[in-house]
Design goal:
63 residues, mainly beta, three-stranded antiparallel sheet, 1 helix, 6% helix, 38% strand, globular, binds FE2/S2 (inorganic) cluster
Length: 63
Amino acid sequence: MTERAKVYVKPNGSVRVTGAVDFVDADGNVIETKENFSLCRCGHSANKPFCDGAHKPAGFTAP
Ligand code: FES
């Protein structure tokens, strides 16, 4: 049984996703399934939509 996906908003950092998630294109086709990754929410990543750690040197803070 696949672990249910969970989303964690990290303090002053990324959005961490655990569990399997399907990435779907505009036509509804699954283009990739990923597990355990972080999404950028600071806008500084060179690998968007994924976090590459750039939020730390950028001094990103979030309420
Ligand atoms: S949140 Fe980590 S690079 Fe943007």
